[in-house]
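Translate structure to sequence.
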């Protein structure tokens, strides 16, 4: 973008514009920012992002601008602001500690929308946008490969098709469908549901990316077609419930899709931890012993974004022999794994730095296993543990429950 080009503030709600001025500059948010802690770039901090956008707005619409005309914004300033904004994992810790209760995560998304319109965003996001448009997934793989994870199952789950109905649909998501490292997550949930006698179906090639990577990149308008397709496919199957193992898919379906459509979905959206918790309460799952020291990592989109904290802990504490350990930062103060906010695409080295800090917290409580309820958290933490040669396993909660079920009678 060139200097002097006006920025579009229509991406900000009236409340968000008020929040820009509500910031007291106390700096409380800074010490809680996981990426700033590692990178020490002030443009990452919530304080600096708010200060910068407020400065841009005053240059265009403030009293001086009204009297003498808007002042140009240097391209270097926009570049610095863009770098800091896209090095944010959107974890939401800053909102939790903000003394004036600024709802930061939607504010960061509005900033990204503004930057995308201005053409000041990492080029890789344009590539992701094009891949999703072409193949309906963020890897650019043929979408017909979405059921590759089920190839090794004795009884693969049925895929909904023309005229085929299913009361419960499992929306697998791009990562678990197309990253071999994450295949064990849908495999585990599928086998858990089958042993519990819960009928379900998957969408197969009818499943398109939920749109979350585009939404958090600041390209939400490109997610509208994806939302309409996915919702229509689930409605056509007559589903009463949709379950996800991905917190980002869960949040997108539950909260973003109704806003995009302007109407209720017509079916319930739940996360796998809620379903597991429900099945255990109904005594539909029999768990064997799991003799390990385990800690739980709260995924940002499941915890702070969606408010689900206790269900996964109830599930873990129900497993015989499991010794549960809580890390220093947990629940609403949990440290991000580093894999959120599309930061992996913009700065993969930064992701590893944040992940190492989280693993250090798990080691501090002598955990043998760090469990999450997010395929991206599992993938990020497992990758960092392998790179650092740490003797700790990173698992998804579905994997540990399925392992415990196979230990029944031992």
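Result:
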């Amino acid at each position: 973008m060139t200097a002097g080009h006006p920025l579009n503030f229509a991406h900000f709600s009236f409340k968000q514009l008020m929040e820009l001025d509500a910031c007291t500059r106390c700096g409380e948010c800074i010490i809680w920012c996981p990426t700033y802690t590692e990178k020490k770039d002030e443009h990452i901090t919530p304080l600096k992002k708010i200060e910068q956008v407020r400065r841009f707005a005053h240059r265009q619409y403030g009293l001086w601008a009204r009297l003498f005309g808007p002042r140009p914004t240097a391209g270097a300033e926009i570049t610095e602001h863009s770098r800091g904004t896209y090095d944010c994992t959107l974890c939401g810790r800053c909102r939790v500690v903000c003394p004036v209760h600024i709802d930061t995560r939607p504010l960061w998304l509005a900033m990204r929308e503004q930057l995308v319109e201005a053409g000041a965003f990492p080029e890789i996001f344009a590539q992701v946008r094009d891949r999703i448009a072409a193949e309906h997934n963020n890897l650019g793989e043929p979408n017909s490969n979405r059921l590759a994870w089920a190839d090794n199952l004795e009884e693969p789950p049925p895929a909904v098709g023309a005229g085929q109905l299913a009361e419960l649909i499992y929306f697998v998501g791009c990562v678990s469908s197309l990253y071999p490292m994450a295949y064990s997550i849908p495999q585990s949930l599928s086998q858990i549901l089958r042993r519990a006698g819960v009928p379900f179906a998957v969408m197969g090639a009818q499943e398109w990316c939920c749109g979350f990577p585009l939404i958090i990149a600041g390209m939400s308008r490109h997610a509208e077609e994806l939302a309409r397709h996915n919702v229509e496919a689930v409605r056509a199957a007559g589903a009463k419930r949709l379950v996800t193992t991905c917190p980002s898919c869960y949040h997108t379906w539950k909260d973003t899709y109704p806003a995009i459509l302007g109407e209720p979905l017509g079916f319930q959206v739940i996360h796998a931890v809620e379903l597991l918790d429900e099945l255990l309460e109904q005594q539909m799952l029999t768990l064997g012993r799991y003799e390990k020291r385990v800690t739980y990592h709260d995924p940002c989109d499941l915890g702070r974004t969606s408010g689900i904290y206790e269900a996964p802990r109830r599930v873990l504490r129900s497993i015989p022999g499991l010794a549960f350990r809580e890390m220093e930062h947990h629940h609403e103060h949990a440290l991000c794994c580093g894999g959120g906010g599309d930061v992996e695409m913009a700065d993969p080295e930064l992701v590893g730095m944040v992940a190492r800090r989280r693993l250090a917290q798990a080691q501090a409580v002598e955990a043998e296993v760090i469990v999450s309820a997010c395929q991206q958290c599992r993938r990020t933490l497992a990758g960092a543990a392998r790179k650092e040669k740490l003797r700790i396993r990173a698992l998804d909660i579905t994997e540990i429950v399925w392992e415990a079920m196979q230990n029944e009678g031992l």
